[in-house]
Design brief:
Blueprint (H helix, E strand, L loop, with lengths): L1 H38 L6 H9 L2 H6 L3 H14 L2 H6 L1 H19 L12 H17 L2 H7 L1 H30 L15 H21 L2 H5 L2 H10 L4 E5 L9 H4 L6 E2 L4 E2 L9 H5 L5 E5 L14 H31 L35 H7 L5 H5 L5 E3 L9 E3 L12 H5 L16 E8 L5 H4 L6 H5 L5 E5 L9 E5 L9 H5 L8 E11 L1
Antiparallel strand pairs: 1-4, 2-3, 5-6, 7-10, 8-9
Helix pairs in contact: 1-2, 1-15, 6-10, 7-8, 7-12, 9-10
Length: 527
């Protein structure tokens, strides 16, 4: 009988370890893959991994992916806030930072966490501001608070440059071996304000996670606050057995969410992210993950000794743990099923004057965004489309009302008619999916010619570069002297055919400002 009890305890401990291992494995897998989605510039991974952005909670809500939203609510009602500890990349990043901090504290034999009451006024206050910002169309404010968007900016602005430098080093080495398996990409800051915001966000998160674990998740994050409403009523929870608890406090000292009140044997399930750390820290078996049952419910009705009754109850806990193990695995599987160059060449002789962006009266939004209003209402400023743009056309806006949302500028490239990658990767519905054959019929803007910059008048030379490279044939050259066909010719734009791709602006030889530029349309048109 003693051997049987030891075996049961061993199996319970093994199941607890397995639950935590599964959670960690899935979290590392999701975090690594979604980071690669932002780092990859070749466009090969988005066909396989774009669903990982689509199932993020806020993009799913904005894109009206009802299935994904309902699935997350059901999963939260069953298992609690596992979204925050497995799927959310910002949450997993905080866990990683906290883990490194824990190694340092482990050497000093010090545990840094303790229970703290929920700051409900701050959580709900931030949520109200977030919802008001979304409804009012102030996307820049909402993007500052959204966890997925914050991580996207960090990955695109801080991690991708390092990734590109490594790629360029491989391309340099491969070129010396007559191999072109890699090609180099220019590393540049697309928007200084967005870069600064990403850097500050990253530093603040490091400080908070290093010292206090998941402070951001449980006090600021609006997605965590929304899920907390459902997590309170989750069917399977971490609960404390008061008979076994000796009040050592190890569970609370290792809880990154600071939600375990071991003195009163209570857990704030609205903040618990089901990370499983407390299960490992408890050496008395007082903590378990499962369906909470009330005492005295007749689980042991037969007239046996207390020891036999305890053995029977432990047998029951083993069965419950087995079911929980299988349920957690099934939930992870169902989560996955939700988703079904240009080099600067100056010859080494003189510095080349670079083009400067125009201050456009109307910003240009990508094809598929439908209108500036649709972009403002749905875009989370996650920077995924910016990181995926192969022509360096998309960059974060510096306008205060649309800060960090993508706009188009053509000093480094133009929007090629055959490319529609941004519409394929957008998870929030800000850029609707479009087909390649429809791209050339969407008018996102129109070209405007400026006589004062055109080299036909400034230098008195023939050009016609804009007309030769216009993919829609919207530009024709007209003689400056109507009576002399041999006179220098200047461009005239057919507004009914121009789609605003920016080829004319990008390829115009006039510098630093092109003689022809594109003004955006508030509402896109089909021509």
């Amino acid at each position: 009988k003693h051997y049987r009890i030891i075996t049961i305890k061993y199996r319970i401990a093994l199941y607890k370890i397995m639950l935590r291992k599964i959670r960690l494995t899935l979290a590392i897998l999701f975090f690594g893959l979604i980071t690669l989605l932002f780092l990859d510039f070749t466009g090969t991974l988005h066909a396989w991994l774009s669903w990982m952005a689509t199932i993020q909670f806020l993009p799913a809500v904005l894109a009206l992916h009802v299935g994904a939203v309902i699935a997350w609510i059901v999963i939260t009602l069953l298992l609690g806030r596992i979204y925050c500890s497995i799927i959310c990349p910002l949450g997993v990043m905080q866990d990683a930072i906290s883990w490194f901090s824990g190694l340092r504290n482990k050497k000093r034999k010090r545990r840094r966490f303790s229970y703290s009451p929920a700051k409900s006024w701050l959580r709900y206050g931030v949520l109200v501001v977030f919802i008001v910002a979304l409804v009012a169309g102030v996307g820049s404010l909402a993007a500052l608070l959204a966890p997925y968007s914050s991580y996207g900016r960090i990955a695109q602005n801080l991690f991708q440059p390092i990734y590109l430098l490594g790629n360029n080093a491989l391309a340099f080495a491969a070129e010396r071996m007559d191999s072109y398996a890699f090609y180099s990409r220019e590393v540049w800051i697309r928007s200084l304000p967005t870069f600064i915001i990403a850097l500050v966000t990253f530093i603040v998160l490091i400080i908070l996670a290093w010292r206090n674990g998941r402070t951001y998740c449980n006090t600021i994050c609006p997605v965590g606050t929304v899920l907390s409403f459902f997590a309170r009523f989750s069917l399977f929870k971490v609960h404390i057995d008061e008979d076994k608890c000796i009040g050592c406090g190890l569970c609370a000292k290792g809880c990154k969410a600071s939600c375990i009140d071991f003195k009163n044997h209570k857990i704030d399930y609205s903040r618990c992210v089901v990370c499983g750390d407390c299960l490992d820290n408890c050496h008395k078996g007082a903590l378990s993950f499962g369906k909470l049952t009330k005492k005295g419910n007749g689980d042991c009705k037969s007239p046996q000794t207390d020891k036999d009754c305890s053995s029977m109850n432990e047998n029951k806990k083993v069965d419950s743990s087995r079911r929980n193990f299988l349920l957690a695995t099934a939930a992870a599987v169902s989560t996955a099923a939700l988703a079904q160059e240009k080099k600067k060449v100056d010859g080494g002789l003189a510095a080349v004057t670079q083009k400067e962006p125009f201050k456009r009266h109307t910003p240009i939004t990508p094809p598929g965004s439908l209108s500036a209003q649709n972009m403002a209402q749905h875009c989370t400023a996650c920077q995924l489309c910016v990181s995926q743009c192969p022509n360096d056309v998309l960059r974060p806006s510096t306008d205060l009302m649309h800060l960090m949302q993508p706009t188009m500028s053509y000093e480094r490239g133009y929007c090629r008619p055959e490319c529609h990658r941004c519409s394929e990767v957008c998870p929030a519905g800000a850029i609707k999916p479009i087909k390649k054959e429809d791209k050339s019929s969407i008018q996102i803007g129109h070209a405007v010619w400026s006589k004062k910059n055109c080299i036909v008048f400034t230098d008195g030379v023939e050009c016609g570069n804009c007309a030769r490279h216009c993919p829609s044939g919207a530009i024709m050259m007209i003689p400056t002297d109507p009576n002399d066909e041999t006179s220098p010719k200047f461009p005239a734009v057919n507004l009914s055919r121009c789609i605003g791709c920016g080829a004319c602006e990008n390829l115009c030889p006039a510098k630093p400002f092109s003689a022809i530029h594109v003004e955006g349309h508030e509402v896109h048109k089909y021509i």
